Amino acid sequence: MTSPKGEDGIMKRQHRATAVAAVAAMLAMGAAQAEPAKDDELTINGEETLATQAPAPDHLQGALGDTVYSGWLFRDPDTRAMQKDDFDNPMFLFVDAGIEAWNTPDGTEGKSCADCHNAIEDSMKGLRAALPKVTEKGELWSLENFVNDCRTNRMGAEAWGWNSQEMKNMTTAIGLQSRGMPVAVAIDGEAAPFWEKGKEMYYTRYGQLEMSCANCHEDNFGNYIRSDHLSQGQINGFPLYRLKDQGAVSTHQRFVGCMRDTRGVPFEAGSQEFRELELYVASRGLGMPVETPAVRH
Amino acid sequence: MQNILILAALAASLGVAAMAETVPNAISWAEDGSIPESLTGTAGNPDEGRVVMTTNALGNCVACHAIAAMPDVPFQGNIAPQLDGAADRWTEAQLRGIVVDAKRTFPESFMPGMYKVGPFIRPGVAYTAKPPEKPEDIRPILSARQVEDVVAYLMTLSE
């Protein structure tokens, strides 16, 4: 668990006072147990408003109440504001770099992504919302796997590291093309066995602290661990900018951090285990709009 | 000179503590999850206990529990019950059991065992994310003495 940071914490504390009032009102109406910001809307560039909650998917069987919430609702007003304007959102530097890489030939074949896929806006629309998914060969792949498959097998270029800046630039640029589209991962059919394993991991109590993802993000979202306001741990905004790290953070990188915080040994970024966990966690946000690239602290 | 004296005194007290200390796997538990006997054979120091409870790298109890008796401690969590009045609700033996391994009192509890070395699933060496090379690399979060200090502080929380 992280140490409270002066200013950051004070802000959250103030936020908490208003949130408490909001919760009192909510409880009076017999609504959910959470205390996300209820009085703010995620309107991007003053134009497009993204819903930050959705009816909870059936498979959760009420585990999160009747509503799932974006992590955006649990952050302080300044952090929320950064995500409302693409000029203020630091991730857009990485989007630009990703789009440049999209158009730049690389590898022994001398081809760029654009040579095969044309405009990123058209060919990559909706992809992020449906990943991870099962390939024709029956493997569960995340977006990073697809990117490296093209690089190594079609471009004759080297694979990028899962958490490398180049990879995050590209997954952010591709993810942005699905912004506003509902998360729509398949969890039945061939995906079902992977999903089941991810679910089992989500409820496993790892590390010396014996904590599962569910202990923090299901049982206690809306509560505070020291100065950390716990969200539902949704992944519809990844890759996202983390102010604390001053950089882009991938989904698996976040999983690593949370498992380390249990005094545990995390699985590796890109591992089979984390792709299964990614599928399961994505499915806990089914129906919520993709927010990529989000901003968090 | 003074430093040397302090060091000598510290070494002596550590030596004594080490001799009398009960290691995590040798604790005599009562049926109800309580531990009647002090882990060090001596009484804890409540002032030290307060420090352990409010220090992130030690017990960090305030991460989850609020304690109104510590109004100077910022950012107390709201995951777990407020601890004021704990000494009215529990005996010393029960509090020791809760601090050492709360799951013996509250099955499925979110509260970590503060004097427990396993079994765990994928335990790492503290927050390094690295697996232990040998079982002893997994150290209890608090020492026996720190547990007793915390218990001594909790015993001051009566209303």
UniProtKB/TrEMBL annotation, chain A:
Protein's UniProt name: SoxAX cytochrome complex subunit A
Location (main, coarse): periplasm
Record-stated family: Belongs to the SoxA family.
Matching Pfam families: SoxA-TsdA_cyt-c (PF21342)
Organism: Paracoccus sediminis
Keyword Electron transport listed: yes
Oligomeric and partner information: Heterodimer of SoxA and SoxX.
Example GO biological process: sulfur oxidation
Residues annotated as binding substrate: R254
Keyword entries, A-Z: Electron transport, Heme, Iron, Metal-binding, Periplasm, Signal, Transferase, Transport
Catalytic activity: S-sulfanyl-L-cysteinyl-[SoxY protein] + thiosulfate + 2 Fe(III)-[cytochrome c] = S-(2-sulfodisulfanyl)-L-cysteinyl-[SoxY protein] + 2 Fe(II)-[cytochrome c] + 2 H(+); L-cysteinyl-[SoxY protein] + thiosulfate + 2 Fe(III)-[cytochrome c] = S-sulfosulfanyl-L-cysteinyl-[SoxY protein] + 2 Fe(II)-[cytochrome c] + 2 H(+)
InterPro entries attached to this UniProt entry: Cyt_c-like_dom, Cyt_c-like_dom_sf, SoxA
Signal peptide segment: 1-34
TrEMBL record, chain B:
Gene: soxX
Source taxonomy: Bacteria, Pseudomonadati, Pseudomonadota, Alphaproteobacteria, Rhodobacterales
Name by which UniProt lists this protein: Sulfur oxidation c-type cytochrome SoxX
Cytochrome c domain mapped to chain residues: 44-158
Span of the signal peptide: 1-20
Molecular functions (GO terms): electron transfer activity; heme binding; metal ion binding
Keyword Iron found: yes
Swiss-Prot/TrEMBL keywords: Heme, Iron, Metal-binding, Signal
Taxonomy, superkingdom: Bacteria
Listed InterPro entries: Cyt_c-like_dom (IPR009056), Cyt_c-like_dom_sf (IPR036909), Thiosulf_SoxX (IPR030999)
